Amino acid sequence: MVEELKSDSVDDATNVSSVGPLEVASGNANANGDSTPNRGPPQRPGLAELVASSMRSLGSVGSAIVHAVFTKYDSALDAPFAITPKDLGDLSSERTHWAMGLLLDKALKNLPPTLPGQEESLQIDKAQIQALVKRIGTEEGELDERHLKSSAHMHDMDLAANALATVILRSKPEEGITNEKSDIDFRRESFGTNAITPKELDSFLKLCWEAVQDFVLIMLICLGIIDIVVETTIGLKEGETCGHCWFEGAAILGAVFLVVLVSATIDYQKQFIFVRLSRSLYETNTKMVIRDGRQLSVIDDEIVVGDILSVNAHNLASIPADCVVLGPPVNGGIKMDESSLTGESVLITKNPGDVVLSGTTVVQGSGKLLVIAVGINSVAGKIKARVYEATEHADGDGLDGDAKSPLFVKLEALAKKIGMAGTAAALLSLVVNCIRGFAIQKQAVGDVLIEYIVVAITVLAVAVPEGLPLAVTLALAFSSNKMMKDQNLVKTLDACETMGSATTICTDKTGTLTTNKMTARAMYTNGTDFSCTDPAVALSDFVKTNKDCPNEQTLDLVSKLIAINTMDETTVDIDPDGKIISSTGNPTEVALLLLASTIGGTTYQEIRETTRGRSDKGALSEFLVEGKQFQFTSARKMMSWAVPLIQGGYRIYCKGASEVLLARCNHQFANDVVELNDASRQGILRVGEMYARRGMRTLALAYRDLPDGVDFEAKSDSVLNADGSEANAVETNLTFVALVGIEDPLRPEVPEAIEKCYEAGIDVRMVTGDAPNTAVSIAYQAGILKDFHFAHGTDEKIAINLKPNVLMEGKIFRRKVYRIDENGNKEFDQTAFDKIWPHLRVMARSSPDDKLTLAHGLNQSTLYTDKSACEQLKKEDNISVFPDRQVVAMTGDGTNDAPALKRADIGFAMGIAGTQIAKDAADIILLDDNFASIVTAAKWGRNVYASIQKFLQFQLTVNIAAVVTALVGSFAYAKSPLAAIQLLWVNLIMDALASLALASEPPTDELLKNDPVNRSKSIVTSQMWGNMLGHAAYQLAVIFFLLFEGPGVFGFEPGHIVERELKENSTHYTFIFNSFVWMQLFNEFNARALNGEFNVFKGVLSNPLFCVILFISAVLQVIMVQFGGDAMHVHEDGLDGELWGYSIAIGAGSLPMGQVINVVYYLFHSCCGKKEAS
């Protein structure tokens, strides 16, 4: 395992010579034709020069054959192609040599007729290409691995790629396709367009329709219609006119319209925010293609099959379609970052004939690519189509998720219970009134039945919390806007709350837990290991403050080794604090240049500019030709740069794989040059192995002084390169200086964020494509892995020392959680998964499909119901299983992460590194790609849940008091003292404002000190029930006193007499309405406390919005009472000052009542607890 890790990391870390168009020429023959090293001024050829260079390199016989096929054999532009989009898509999917052979073989059988006079040459060329097909094979396993790595096979794949371009796709590697519209249109018809239809935005009407599906709104619509029909038809007595009789029903429907309008508008605006972000990215997605021999800049959507793309690492080109690399390699070929599709962070070398997938990125080198699949026929396009059409599980994998968030499930269940209770109360009112009126008072049915029905409708209207849907929408919208400032772009409102219920976060490593910037974190020099484990401390600072710090000469030598022996293409801008401002080129070299600039006395730019034979600026530029560069090759696994010395001779600086360079060293620099014996060599190698086990990429630094007249072309008689070829003599007998360990470091804020997650009862699992030891190193530093996850008696934190199932590689995970059914189909095994996931903390070498499986398995697990298994896990491994189904949050940045992001309860996409497809599939976009922002989202989510609980505590208190008041009023006087329009005012306007006020309080860290809320746990807690029933009892006592004793105490006519006999709105009922509202306004303070807190004013002044809304609500109430008249069913003159004073005093009584309720609940709860304990 160690050797494999070393090989992977070194091959990647040392491949720093493949540069793009900005590379400085390494040498030319002099005027006399000698091979003396010669470096001219920096050459910056354009793409046209690179294409011309590539054309001149097509000098091999094979290339001539392929080129001759195209020049001799031609067909009409509209002749059908010999292959289909599916055939090319198969090549993209398989990405093997035999898939290429199979494609060429099939194409040769279907070639269209030639133009007259070309038949004979076609048959000859077919035979030549058929011979090529036989050499590269058409079946898996047909050729042995040794042959596949041979130069002959690589040459054949080069020919195959050119054959595919010229013969099959009728394109020219040096000229591309024609730029004629007819040719481009025909290719689009034949192979499809590269423009994938963007996800269609939901229309405003559709969003309105979705909003109106709420159970409460459906009840209100029915109630409003019934009220209007009854009041305007059968409710009218003979000769009576309607007047304003329809107003209450219309007001109910108007309330529904307002709620739907607000909800739909918020969702509609959210869509366009995301569209604007996407559009700005789209307009910058342009690529260079070659058509008619000229370079053209086209947007990605205009690229067609057969186009020749010119790509280079200078602008980190993202590949817009599936392509095949064309040869010969330009400037050493290209390296690709395929992590967006595979999850692997190791760069992949691409040779001619290899397939490059859409969505991947060129990070090193330059070259030409033949487009073979576009749009929905490309690998990334297929995934994008699945995301947009929401058919990612249409293949029957059974990995479907829940349609609604936990909060909305609870609210819907609560609304149905409220609706049932309201219906029961309305029926009770109707039955009691009918018994009293018809059986006891012997009234005529026609005279009072309609009145009884209207009263029952009023009771039902009182019971239904009209403001609840609007309150929830406002709370979510307010929180989502606040989350935007905390780097969370919320695409769907319910995602705010869902994150608050999260029990598990499955996170990526690269860019989320780490900085996604390679950084030197360890160095071995002078016989001392300097390993910096604090992510907040730079390695250079750690070394220079260490008691064993090397002397200045050693540090300067390390700086020179790096600054001189790195490519011009790699640059880094550093601020005075040693932080990177910007960088280009190879990430590993960027890390080295940062180290070089901060560990020595000068920056890498100063070293380069003052070094003869390396500087291309000022007076020293004329001596640039004296330097000699040996570029990196995979055969050597190292690179070198020789520069002349002032005293004569040269010094060659080398860097490369530690095992390669150490084998060539016979001295080491330890404050002076000393002999390197075998013991010292083995000690350095052990340090390198330790770095590798910690997930670092290791590089050795060495040098050698050479005499004047040295032959740079001489080969060694005894030392061989990694591939067995003869080594350069000047790159032997080196002096070892340092060993550097480079890694993608942890973000400094991550450990604290993960610790907060564990305190909040949220498990964190890391899913990465990296090797196990790399994954373990980061997970341990982050705090995902603790000491108890490792076997007893082991000190080294490496993968092999972990307890079973704590870490699992993707291939092993897939083998364990999938079984083959009797029909031979792969089937997910939930039982097997449940044995793994409680232990699992890290998944290494995983694929995006593993993320999908993990999200589904966690979400559907019912392990919590197996009490014996849970007890065993707690006893043996100290693992606590959350007592409900898991709520899963998943992060992703790659195209292949999209299905997992949609399957998880909440998907987080990376705003910086994330692909467009991943962002489309996600619920929330992390604008800073930072794990700490996920914790912020969790805190806001819990705040949303708490805010809705506060509102429900406030709203249901209103409903309990109002329903009982309406019932008692109907029993006593066959009429509620609170009119339906007044209760609608309280439930909709006043409560909506209250919801915004209660939702406006910022979250606190206290929210993360409790466990997540169970899916099955009621949103209304026992403490909330105590608060609601206590305050409702106080309000009912006040209202009943005013209803029955108020006329005698305050000296006004009873309301039921005034309204029945005089047909006027009474002062009595207006006073009751006003007192009722003021009790609600003061109760907003009590509603801020969910857990019996005594200080209900804590933090109120730090929330100015709460104070402003409370003031606005009070002003609106004054207006409604004094000027509402018939519209608000209040007395035309309102109330006098005395009654206003009583109303406000009665409302203020809610505050001391809240303290009484807290004391009673505490005593009751304590007594019950003691009884249960006894």
From TrEMBL:
It is a multi-pass membrane protein. PROSITE patterns: ATPASE_E1_E2 (PS00154). InterPro entries: ATPase_P-typ_cation-transptr_C, ATPase_P-typ_cation-transptr_N, ATPase_P-typ_cyto_dom_N, ATPase_P-typ_P_site, ATPase_P-typ_TM_dom_sf, ATPase_P-typ_transduc_dom_A_sf, ATPase_P-type_domA, HAD-like_sf. Residues 976-1158 form the Cation-transporting P-type ATPase C-terminal domain. Residues 1-46 are annotated as: Disordered. Residues 169-226 form the Cation-transporting P-type ATPase N-terminal domain. Keywords: ATP-binding, Calcium, Calcium transport, Ion transport, Magnesium, Membrane, Metal-binding, Nucleotide-binding, Translocase, Transmembrane, Transmembrane helix, Transport. The chain crosses the membrane at residues 215-234, 246-266, 418-440, 452-478, 951-973, 979-999, 1024-1044, 1099-1119, 1139-1164. Its main location: membrane. GO terms for molecular function: ATP binding; metal ion binding; P-type calcium transporter activity. It catalyses: Ca(2+)(in) + ATP + H2O = Ca(2+)(out) + ADP + phosphate + H(+). Its EC number is 7.2.2.10. It is found in: Endomembrane system. GO terms for cellular component: endomembrane system. Residues 27-38 have a biased composition (Polar residues). It holds the Pfam family E1-E2_ATPase. The keyword Ribonucleoprotein does not apply. Residues 287-386 form the P-type ATPase A domain. SUPFAM superfamilies: Calcium ATPase, transduction domain A, Calcium ATPase, transmembrane domain M, HAD-like, Metal cation-transporting ATPase, ATP-binding domain N. PANTHER family: CALCIUM-TRANSPORTING ATPASE (PTHR24093:SF369), CATION TRANSPORTING ATPASE (PTHR24093). This is P-type Ca(2+) transporter. It comes from Stephanodiscus triporus.
